[in-house]
Amino acid sequence: MPKPDLLPLTPPVFHILLALADEERHGYGIMQDVARQTNDALLLGPGTLYGCVKRMLAAGLVEESDERPDLELDDERRRYYRMTALGRDTVRAEASRLAGAVSAAKAKLGLAGGK
Amino acid sequence: MEDPGFVRGLCRVYAAMLFAYPRDFRLEYGAEMQQFFHDRCRELVRANSGCSAWFRFGMRNLMDWIVSTVREHRAAPRQTSGARKLIQEWAVTLLLFLFVTTTMVQAYVVPTGSMENNILIGDHMLVDKVGFSNTGNNWTSYVLPNRQVKRGDIIAFRYPQDVRQTFVKRVIGLPGDHIQLQNKQVIRNGQPLEEPYAQHTSTHADDDRDNFPTAAAPAAFANHVQDGEVVVPPDMLFVLGDNRDNSLDSRYWGFVPRDYLVGKPLVIYWSYDGSTKDFETWNIEHLEDVALHFFTKTRWSRTLTAP
Question: What is the ipTM of this complex?
């Protein structure tokens, strides 16, 4: 179960978890995937990214991976990160919390779903 | 692919900026952050980015750097290692000490008896360096309480003939005052002064000491004598010692420029009965004397009194 005090996640943490949902990535790969998810609205800088990673490691949301999948771009300075089971539960809980917030907003603002 | 020179330069700048992060964070993630930064630069080069893209990249990284250094420093656990703490505390103490002694108070010892019987040989005093307004254009004069120099104030100042020495005398004349001594009696602006603080040790009247100014007055007064009176020029002070017959003061070397004013003697923190040479130069006999007679030769009644 996700720890309730982790929610709500900050946008960078939420998107970093999403970036790691399908595969292990190194820092720059995370940043690129977050940019794709958000249409370049959220461009993580190195300080913000690694600050988040440090806290997510401490909270047990992500862990370091020993595997190095990206062979051609590999560099020994890179570390790869993967999401833990706790991370997966937490990002799910955050996604449904956001979905609840979005449907509440739609009801209040009279927005047609999807259009 | 070889990086363009400016990319290598940017990477070096970024590597230096990493030193703003807490040490632990830098050691753990610094290399990766440099790699990240380098990757981003390479991508911009590959995309043939123009100036505006590089500018946005630079600004974004600057913001990221500012925000995340502050955040990481807040999050960093305080260093509690004993040695480090000790060094920090002493550094703060030392800085405060330097600040206070250079701008606010300074300790002096009086080696001569020119201000007897108000200030004695061996009086160790703290001088308040910010109590008079505009002392050396010090910024503290805008912040801390201060006032103009008045007639009768005891002041510490740099001796104009040798600025390494600090003298303590009493202000007799302010700019514009007419000063004259007739047979040991000071006459200021035509009025004989009542001077309960002054002492005279001889009955003999010397020229230029007890009758002043005479034709033999120091050259410093050459253009400042009118009708047998010295007129204090702007931004100058005329000072005399209280031990009037044994005082090397304005009568012998001229005016004190206002800028040479150091401050106001604040408190005598220790008064020790010794001779002029003991307090002028360091000597081992004096140290021995203090060690042996500290309790008997300290003038306890003067301790923590105002001069």
Answer: 0.84
